Amino acid sequence: MWKERRTDLSEGREPGPINLQRYKGGFYPSGIPTFYRSPVALVPEDLKAGKVDVAIVGAYTDNTIAMRGAAYGPNMLRAMSEIYGAWGIFEQAHVHTMITLGKDLNIVDYGDAPTEPFNVERSIHEIRKFIAEIAGVKHENGKHVIPIIMGGDHSLAYPDLAALADVYGKGNVGMIHFDAHYDGSYAYGVTGHNGSFTKRLIQEGHVKGENYIQIGLRGWYPDEVTWKWMREVGIKYHTMGQIEKHGWEAVLEEVMKEIDDGPDYWFISFDMDSMDPTYAPAVGSPEPNGLTTPVVFRMVRRLCAEKNVVGMEMVEYNPLRDSNWMTGQLANRIVKEAMVGIALRKKGITEADYESDLTKTHGQNKLTEIQYLTIIEQSEKR
Amino acid sequence: MKTTGCIILLAVVAMAFAFPAAVLSAEKSTLKAGIPDEWAPWKDPNNPNVIILQDDKDKFFERRERPGIQSERRAS
Amino acid sequence: MNPQRYKFGELLAGFPTFLGAPMAFTTEDLKAGKVDVALVGISIGDQPVPGGNFGANKMRALTDWLAFPAGGTNNMIGVDYGKLTIADYGNVGWNFFAQNQRNVEEVHRVVAEILAADTIPIGVGGTHVQTYGFQTALAQKYGPGTFVTLHIDAHYDTYMYGFGRFVHNGSFLKVAIEKGLINGSDLIQVGLRGEYPDNASLQWMREQKIKSHYMAAIEKKGWNAVLKEILKELKGRKVHISWDMDGMDPAAAPAVGTQDPDGLSAAQGLQLLRAVGIQNEIIAAEFNEYNPLLDDAHTTTGILMDRLIRSLLAGVQARKEGITDPLYYDPERLDHVQ
Questions:
Q1: Which of C16, C292, C293 sits opposite A33 (nearest CB)?
Q2: How much is the ipTM here?
Q3: Is residue B42 part of a domain?
Q4: Which domains are delineated in chain A?
């Protein structure tokens, strides 16, 4: 029953995204709660007709070993996690890139993936089909629709990446995995929970070990045997220790190189617990000393703009622990940064670390610039 | 000096309230009629962009006469 | 327009609409769908403690386990309100920089749209000042003084005009009576308590023949006696319900900006709405003053408000099915007879 679709989804209407809003624009407390107040699409034909770039999907698996509640994530992200900010005609540009998402990108809310509340193992195959249905929509320019999955817990990574592998070919999609945890354990003999997918995806061959990049690992696990296994299969892990020692910029450059050496398509799996709990306390399994917002915003934006990211997931946000909707806001903003990157790439801007000239500097220091040039000139004469 | 500053501030506040009007969107006139005028005491039928303020508008800015000294006891 | 992809699911699944109901956008939609009840979100905030603007959308994305589509059998009277056609009519626009008297006008317009389809509008969220927009729209449709406003609140809300505003969160009922939208004797208040009204206001309320049921009466005479009095006063009238969540006891509904201890219990609230729904023709209802930013576990008050709405809908459906006793109980559920 949980996966039974209505038969009249396309009846009596032209294919294309449906705008549910009564007003042309507004502030976030108002409006019908869809992701970013985007129009709704129900069937793949809608995505095709609307030339949709990004389809955002809710999925509410909740099979974590730690505190549950992530199932409430998608609808809370739709309804409650923008305290301020405007949508529709009032939407404003992103400061660093001058991208206005509503204008520069065709975004839709594709509803929720079929999820069964009791057995995650039954849900994930349906979710995999569902995501493949979205990513399988190919536009005339050869580009596919990019699915962004709002979780839900991290058991989603398995169906999400496997779905993309179904579309782009087994082993052709690489994984960029932001997380405090390595997520490669069959704990208690279960292969479908929020910490098992790394092992399962690699063992089943959906992604090659050498195309698997992890960022932000820390804490107390796994054991030595597992670290050795990770070495063996070729996982490229970047621990917090590495980031602390070499600086995140150096690590990002390394990641960029690893991506260039890898396959053509990449998927970002963003676990909110990769963030420091100061920034994102409302996750199922918080782990201190994590990533910070300036780092993550730029990393995610740059990855999406400069590399061929064909899908993303935002998982492990647990609204039941979110006492002031702070973590929800951050989760929404991280996805926004990713979409800014996707919009830049759509515009053909893929240069390294692009920023708008308008906001990079205030540009009032011309005198200093001239002075600087004169100094260089003089030194050359000498 | 402090007193002068206060007076100037008060004058600005008073000026803002001297015009019993809050200028809002000029689109108003083209919208569907809302609440009929006789039930909407805040509306000026001749000037759709004006909201009439009720007489107590400055009550929040009323000051006690001798702050700190004046008795807090109310007249019964 | 039903944005849900699946036929059935938990409320945490699918698009967040009120009770998981399909959406309607215009009077024509409501007419074409023969909609009985349209739930409309309101995001005006007029409270001293801000946050009421988030009430409407929080009610859509309630942290709740119940299932959609909008329906379910009320366990007191054994009636499935899913037989009603229920729609989510979206939100009323809100100009956050404007004076709220201006926003009340948009409430009036949207409520009037719903009334034009002979559908019952039920406002969800927002602040109490919106009641004025409901009353003007109802007076326009049914005529001034033709309906009763059943007002559940800790506060009497017929305070003087003031601070520059005619209609504000504490004065809207005074304006409504003075402008003749309702007769003073057609205002029935339940749950009044706290430190007001003062003697002057009380005098004015007496002159207007307002029927106030204070918590004092409920304490002294007992809830059942007061409920019977209220039902007797309402008998045969068209009823507009204006439900302030602070009328409930803060133990049941902590997420209001103007708490006052010792209010109605959840059971009393649910029973009152069910009984009025059975006995009277409901022409409009609104449930306001819910401030999700103050809610326990993000959900306690929201779930109560959700169940209050469902209880009212069950009453409305029971009336349709021919149940006439407002204090009716399903015999099946009174005794297991084993």
A1: C16
A2: 0.77
A3: yes
A4: 25-381 (3.40.800.10)
